[in-house]
Design brief:
CATH architecture of the largest domain: 6 Propeller
Order of helices and strands: HEEEEEEEEEEEEEEEEEEEEEEEEEEEHE
CATH class of the largest domain: Mainly Beta
Shape: globular
Number of domains: 2
Strand content: 35-45%
Distance between the termini: 54 Å
Length: 371
C-alpha cells in the first residue's frame, strides 16, 4: 500500500503537469491573439528594378523570392498556398511565371512575345486567367495552371483588362473600354455570355467580389469624385456606399462579407477606413496625425482578424499590419520607398508604357497567403 507521502508526491506531479498544459494552452491562445498567421507577398525595388518578397505576418523571415534583374510584379497566391504566379519581363517582354513559395522552380507559363500580365488563379487552382496583347489588343485569356491550353475568352477590338474570378468560380469580371469609357463586364468562366454590368459616362473599374459571389464593389467617378459603389452580381441595384466629397477607393471585402475596408482622403490625407457592407458606420483605422503622406491598399487576413496595408508613417513606404479594429499597428518591412515614379522612368528605358493599362494599379499591394 503506497504511503501518504508518495501519494501526495504523485498528486503534486499531476498538478504540475496539468498546470503546465494549461500554461501552454493559454500561451498558444495568447500568441494566436497577438500575431496573425500566414505570409504576405509584396513587391519591392530595394534590389531594383522590382522583386517579389514574402514576409511572415509577424514580420519575421523576410526573403526575396525572384532575385532577378527584371521587373517581377503582381504576385498571386495559388488557392492551396503552394505556388505564386507573377508577371516578369525576365525574357524581354512581360510573361506569366509561377514558382514555389520559397522562390524555387520558376517557370514561364505563357511563352509568348506579346505583353502578358496580371495573373488571377481560379478558386479551384486549376486555371489562371490573365490579360494579353498577343492578338493586337488587350484581351482576357485563361490557361491551365501548368501553362497548357491557353484560350482567349474575350474577343473585342477594344481593351479588356484585369480579370477577377467570382469566389464560386463561375464568372470572371473585368473592365473594358469597348463602349468608349471604362465599364465593368462579367462573363462565364469559359468566356460565354459576356454582359455589361455598369452603364455610365464616367469610368468604373477595380472590381472586388463579395465572398458569397452575390455582389461586386467597384470604384467610380460618376458623382464627380471617386466613390465606392456596390451592385448585385448581375449589375442591378448599384448604390453609392461612401457618399463623401473626398476620394474613396480600393475596396476590400472582409472574409465574412460583413465589412469593407477602403482608403480615403476625407481626413485631408489618405487613411484606411472600414465600413459595414451596406456603407454604414465608416471608421478611420489608421488615424495617425504624424503620418502626413498617408496609408493605402488594405488587405484582409484570411481569418478576418488583421489587415495588412502600406504606409508612409515611418518616412518611406512600408508594409504594416494591424488588428481589424485598427489597434496594434506594427511595421513588417523597413526597406521600401515609393515605387511608381521609379517604374515609369525605368520602364520607359525598356520601351514599356506604364501610362496605359498598367496604371492605375497600386504598387506594393500586400497579398496574404490563403493558409
Amino acid at each position: 500500500m503506497p504511503s501518504k507521502s508518495l501519494s501526495a508526491n504523485r498528486l503534486s506531479a499531476r498538478a504540475l503537469v496539468v498546470a503546465g498544459v494549461l500554461l501552454l494552452v493559454g500561451l498558444g491562445v495568447w500568441l494566436t491573439q497577438q500575431w496573425p498567421r500566414g505570409q504576405i507577398a509584396f513587391e519591392s525595388h530595394r534590389d531594383r528594378p522590382a522583386e517579389i518578397y514574402v514576409v511572415n505576418a509577424d514580420g519575421s523571415s523576410q526573403r526575396n523570392l525572384t532575385n532577378s534583374p527584371a521587373f517581377d510584379l503582381f504576385p498571386a497566391w495559388s488557392p492551396n498556398g503552394r505556388s505564386l504566379a507573377f508577371a516578369s519581363n525576365h525574357n524581354g517582354n512581360f510573361e506569366i511565371y509561377v514558382m514555389n513559395t520559397d522562390g524555387s522552380n520558376p517557370r514561364n507559363l505563357t511563352n509568348n512575345p506579346a505583353y502578358n500580365s496580371f495573373p488571377a488563379w481560379s478558386p479551384d487552382g486549376r486555371t489562371i486567367a490573365f490579360m494579353s496583347a498577343r492578338d493586337g489588343n488587350l484581351d482576357i485569356y485563361v490557361m491551365n495552371a501548368d501553362g497548357s491550353n491557353p484560350r482567349r475568352l474575350t474577343n473585342n477590338s477594344a481593351d479588356d483588362e484585369f480579370p477577377a474570378w467570382s469566389p464560386d468560380g463561375r464568372s470572371i469580371a473585368f473592365r473594358s473600354n469597348r463602349d468608349r469609357n471604362w465599364e465593368i463586364y462579367v462573363m462565364n468562366a469559359d468566356g460565354s455570355n459576356p454582359r455589361r454590368l455598369t452603364n455610365n459616362p464616367a469610368d468604373d473599374y477595380f472590381t472586388a467580389w463579395s465572398p458569397d459571389s452575390r455582389s461586386i464593389t467597384f470604384r467610380s467617378e460618376r458623382d464627380g469624385n471617386l466613390e465606392i459603389y456596390v451592385m448585385n452580381a448581375d449589375g442591378s441595384n448599384p448604390r453609392n456606399l461612401t457618399n463623401n466629397s473626398a476620394d474613396d477607393e480600393f475596396p476590400a471585402w472582409s472574409p465574412d462579407g460583413r465589412s469593407i475596408a477602403f482608403e480615403s482622403n476625407r481626413g485631408q490625407k489618405w487613411d484606411i477606413y472600414v465600413m459595414n457592407a451596406d456603407g454604414s458606420n465608416p471608421r478611420n483605422l489608421t488615424n495617425d496625425p504624424a503620418n502626413a503622406e498617408g496609408n493605402g491598399s488594405p488587405a484582409w487576413s484570411p481569418d478576418g482578424r488583421s489587415i495588412a496595408f502600406q504606409s508612409y508613417r515611418g518616412g518611406n513606404l512600408d508594409i504594416y499590419v494591424m488588428n481589424a479594429d485598427g489597434s496594434n499597428p506594427r511595421r513588417l518591412t523597413n526597406n521600401l520607398e515609393h515605387l511608381y515614379q521609379y517604374f515609369v522612368t525605368a520602364a520607359a528605358r525598356l520601351g514599356i508604357n506604364l501610362s496605359g493599362p498598367f496604371y492605375p494599379v497600386p504598387a506594393y499591394n500586400p497579398v496574404w497567403s490563403p493558409q
